[in-house]
Amino acid sequence: MGQVAWKGLFLSLFDYKTEKYVIAKNKKVGILYRVVQLSILAYLVGWVFVVKKGYQDTDTSLQSSVITKMKGVAFTNTSELGERLWDVADYVIPPQVGVVLRAQRATEQGEEVAALCDLFCDVCAAGVKTGRCLKDRDSFRRTCEILAWCPVEKRSKPKKPLLASAENFTVYIKNSIRFPKFKFSKVNVLATDNESYLKSCRYSTEHPYCPIFLLGNIVRWAGSDFQEMALEGGVIGIQIEWNCDLDKAPSECNPHYSFSRLDNKFSEKSISSGYNFRFAKYYRDAEGVDYRTLIKAYGIRFDVMVNGKAGKFNIIPTIINIGSGLALMGAGAFFCDLVLLYLIKKSNFYRGKKYEEVK
Amino acid sequence: MGQVAWKGLFLSLFDYKTEKYVIAKNKKVGILYRVVQLSILAYLVGWVFVVKKGYQDTDTSLQSSVITKMKGVAFTNTSELGERLWDVADYVIPPQVGVVLRAQRATEQGEEVAALCDLFCDVCAAGVKTGRCLKDRDSFRRTCEILAWCPVEKRSKPKKPLLASAENFTVYIKNSIRFPKFKFSKVNVLATDNESYLKSCRYSTEHPYCPIFLLGNIVRWAGSDFQEMALEGGVIGIQIEWNCDLDKAPSECNPHYSFSRLDNKFSEKSISSGYNFRFAKYYRDAEGVDYRTLIKAYGIRFDVMVNGKAGKFNIIPTIINIGSGLALMGAGAFFCDLVLLYLIKKSNFYRGKKYEEVK
Amino acid sequence: MGQVAWKGLFLSLFDYKTEKYVIAKNKKVGILYRVVQLSILAYLVGWVFVVKKGYQDTDTSLQSSVITKMKGVAFTNTSELGERLWDVADYVIPPQVGVVLRAQRATEQGEEVAALCDLFCDVCAAGVKTGRCLKDRDSFRRTCEILAWCPVEKRSKPKKPLLASAENFTVYIKNSIRFPKFKFSKVNVLATDNESYLKSCRYSTEHPYCPIFLLGNIVRWAGSDFQEMALEGGVIGIQIEWNCDLDKAPSECNPHYSFSRLDNKFSEKSISSGYNFRFAKYYRDAEGVDYRTLIKAYGIRFDVMVNGKAGKFNIIPTIINIGSGLALMGAGAFFCDLVLLYLIKKSNFYRGKKYEEVK
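Structure tokens for the assembled complex are given below, as produced in the milestone run.
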């Protein structure tokens, strides 16, 4: 490359070079091209920008903190437990996890007493086999001796819900969220000085910023029957969704609640239906011997799951979407060129005009 | 389309076709175009690539595991509880959640004794109404009999913090993270053999890889006063942010801590201010009658929230950003064309040259 | 701009304008251009669309709910605790967090009795110094009086694992996930009516939808030795990964498990190795004096971490990727132009043909 080339290159830097176009006075292809252009424009403006907000940068990884608290008192009278009164300290185990104790069977148990149990029955699983074989005095069946807390827990399912009146208990769910990318925070509690409102309100679609939920409502919204669920317990998923358009006012960024039952996805009788767990209270008698009360608790557990998406105008996705739209226009022109040069009558003529042959 | 057309199409496959340009020796439009080009280039290189790292693929969904442990002992002497010593087993309830018990009122209660209570007062909420009406012997007010754990808990707010000395307690927070997309893991604990460092250090900006925090510091960094917070409890959000550029050395990927108070977002007196919960210890006396100690605990709860973003070079976003920049150049040329063809004096002349009319 | 210009602008709306090309019959540059085009096409189709599924919109922020339950019974005989039987209610503390108690040392303690302790030793940290100085009667060392729960806990490490037989305990882990963007849900439990399968199965690669894990297997898969871990406890991370291509059948969206140890990242002796916590059981004797049993529990904690990625066809990323590919083609043409116009012999000739000079 000689000096002349370099000089030409430099001089031509500030000449404006514009592509030469051939005007094909073919209205069919012309209209086709306009239709293609308008379609792409409509897609770009209508779908990408208006519907999908392609001019926004999005953040889906939100920080969330959930505080729950339950309220309510119930009175029960059962043969197993006698008359009992239940308040928050009794039915929420452990205090912070948001669990409601619904039904319970208690068994007073001493430590490590040998128990008799059928060799082939499943119940033996709750103890450790000593290896000794025993004969049942009454029948002629042979059984294995096991070590277990005695008496062994009865494997009966609860007949009626213990805390049927828990339908009117309330759950307070406070959820603070933050979108770290946009440094935007919000809480699902009304910013009010009216203390009595936040004590007496109940959540409904009319009161979206009241964080107090009736237990019965939650279960109903999750599509379950409270009395049926009260029998065997269950897990309720409370999904809080924050879809926020941060180009609008912060007051337009609202939580949406949805409730679903998580434990009985498939069949009523499957292992995954219902919710229960065992725990024990430990006592010591006057002689210093430990014993415990084993409790099988049927409860309603709440899983509060928070997710969200925030969008805010950002130049980079805007340009990417405009750019890809423009590139698409180029593809549209390429398609119309194909029509012009190969599919219409006078295509030979246009081909000669578009492509200027040089020797 | 005849055979000739197909033949021409095939033969021309290896001809190089290049767009024909018209050189408009108009320095104004030429300079305008260069300015547009340079602006787009500056935006692309400076903003998209250098500042926003548009050449990187990002991952914001990190896996995180947090282990916490508290240490500290305090001694209290109150009229309600007498002299008491508090160590970890006493003030962390339940053991794993990272909760500090701060103040507590205990009420010894027997089971289900009928209690008298004003019909219209709120306190009755803690019991179940039996439906019987009673007359108060001393006054002439009528009251309803309720079933409740007796005596009913006193509704007084704590006067002074119980564990004021908890300011010197320490919290150990270990956080392991993993970005699954890039298979990158890191821990917020210094990788050292020096065991005594990890036992004696305290977190500060000089010691970012020491995972032991002074309780008093956490509260101060969250913008609260410890003694004020000790009275009614509270919830502290500990945000750990990992912003990692994985094109650099792993040692440049560091956690950043920020502390905020989550319970009193709006007003001091609102329902959402402070943090307390009730739990009970159950005892059985010599006659086998159950009774309980109801404890209202005012505590500090920690919510450790981890989020992060990792970026690493990836060809696809790089090409997308370059491509959208190039498409933008096309838009710039289109804009300069408009100027050349319709806005300058000799535009008619240039229009004729750019668009070659064919019959 | 006159009326004529406007009229021309309008009339020409439906003329099809197509770029004029110059055919350079230079096979070298022609082939170079085809190679560039094919490379870009191969990258776009092969890498972006087939391998990276660039036609899909992805969602990495999934909602997840985890329910765990443990099963198993063990019998121990130690000098500290005597003969004891352990079932779920005894070794899972608190009931919901999925913690296995592995080894434990119990200390019966009365409240706030003065204890003697060496001034310089670390053990004093468990009490509050009264400020009084005492002389040890037997030796001549001086010590400080401290207030503490007495007797002070012995600082010995456990010699042998208490629940060595826990290797055969089972953990039931149910994980429901939901990708909110695509409204797609799935559970890691086989959708079967066969109740006995879900009771007797054990997870393995052959049974990916059996949610019951053997404790020993989990520890082995995490790369640890169970008996060694049983001594000092540990934290096991259970990662469940859902990588779902929602353009395929839902049955192709399967969970992948991986297990890792989270507590001993760096060295065996560091502060972060092992897992233990202290808790207390409270008793009251006949005279109404409280005392407690302090338990230091060495346990295995499970951290179930769920992450996932779902992809589904979406027009916007498809167009963005095609668009950026097309823009790249333009860049390829620009590069070939440079070769044609400045790097080959006849470049001067082609330059004159490509750029039509106007006065």
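Helices of chain A lie at 3-11, 27-51, 88-91, 195-200, 215-221, 226-232, 315-343, 347-354. Chain A touches chain C through 94 residues (CB under 8 Å). Further analysis is deferred to the final report.
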